[in-house]
């Protein structure tokens, strides 16, 4: 019954982190962003069913605290289920011929992080707008206008068209930008949860080194699928843009993994990585584009498999 007790505790903590956002302070927002972590930790450390219990209990707690069924549904769909699903995939394994367990590849897991992020962003839009796409568009435009106003503090002659064009572009790309960030945070939370559970000795699988991250080529089919979706109106088109944004982040993370892998054991590796992350911080758009193309090319050609690599020592798998 341990998985039930831990699930209840994690669900209450996650619900508390979620509802604290009503304080409308920066600290409250940061705490609310951590809401998936308790669900991930108990699902990885006690059983994926513990994550489901946390999701249900968190939803019920929010329904009671806020008297809002919509808020409870939002917690379940946006916070609980994505965290449970990724933990469930992370713990999938099958017996190998040599008596060890073959665990779900971390590259496939990254692909699912991107897909889950895109679907979650669209689910958020549907729930928050009551399923009315015009309301979703209106809110995206309001946020875009506020962002544009930061750069054009006062309207000047000749800037009206620029402001309008930039606002429309940002409003259209809002699902992509949201999914881009959500993919990063969900990947980070999954990694942090795995590290925490591994340190406690409860993680069933050995967590693979991040430089070995490599998505399968089947992920590439998501790109034409996303393009086709963008040709439709409504939430289907928004899902297409969200997929593009999520995949951009996934390929960027793989590009970083390739560089980490290829620099292992090289002299000056620390300076190379510090320089890389400094450039990434200073020239965000340029470096993200370059790294995403690098990760995209690695998915197609498999640079590390084709040319060999500085493979780190793999942790032993658990025997059956």
Automatic annotation (TrEMBL):
It holds the Pfam family DUF2232. Keywords: Membrane, Transmembrane, Transmembrane helix. Signal peptide: none annotated. InterPro entries: DUF2232. It comes from Microvirga guangxiensis. The keyword Transmembrane applies. The chain crosses the membrane at residues 25-44, 73-97, 109-128, 173-194, 238-259, 271-297. The lineage of its organism: Bacteria, Pseudomonadati, Pseudomonadota, Alphaproteobacteria, Hyphomicrobiales. This is Predicted membrane protein. The keyword Zinc does not apply.
């Amino acid at each position: 019954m341990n998985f039930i007790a831990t699930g209840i505790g994690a669900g209450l903590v996650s619900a508390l982190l979620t509802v604290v956002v009503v304080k409308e302070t920066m600290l409250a927002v940061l705490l609310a962003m951590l809401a998936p972590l308790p669900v991930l930790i108990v699902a990885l450390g006690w059983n994926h069913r513990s994550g489901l219990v946390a999701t249900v209990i968190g939803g019920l707690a929010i329904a009671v605290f806020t008297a809002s069924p919509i808020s409870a549904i939002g917690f379940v769909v946006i916070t609980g289920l994505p965290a449970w699903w990724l933990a469930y995939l992370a713990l999938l394994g099958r017996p190998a011929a040599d008596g060890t367990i073959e665990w779900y590849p971390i590259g496939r897991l990254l692909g699912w992080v991107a897909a889950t992020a895109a679907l979650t962003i669209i689910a958020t839009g549907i729930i928050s707008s009551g399923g009315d796409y015009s309301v979703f568009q209106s809110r995206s435009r309001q946020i875009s206008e506020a962002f544009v106003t930061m750069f054009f503090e006062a309207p000047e002659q000749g800037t009206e068209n620029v402001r309008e064009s930039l606002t429309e572009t940002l409003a259209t790309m809002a699902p992509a930008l949201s999914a881009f960030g959500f993919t990063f945070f969900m990947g980070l939370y999954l990694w942090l949860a795995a590290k925490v559970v591994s340190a406690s000795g409860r993680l069933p699988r050995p967590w693979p080194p991040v430089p070995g991250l490599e998505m399968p080529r089947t992920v590439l089919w998501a790109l034409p699928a996303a393009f086709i979706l963008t040709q439709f109106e409504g939430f289907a088109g928004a899902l297409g843009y969200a997929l593009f944004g999520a995949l951009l982040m996934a390929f960027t993370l793989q590009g970083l993994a390739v560089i980490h892998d290829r620099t292992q054991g090289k002299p000056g590796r620390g300076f190379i990585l510090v320089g890389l992350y400094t450039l990434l911080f200073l020239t965000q758009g340029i470096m993200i584009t370059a790294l995403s193309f690098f990760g995209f090319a690695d998915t197609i050609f498999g640079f590390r498999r084709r040319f060999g690599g500085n493979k780190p020592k793999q942790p032993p798998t658990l025997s059956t």
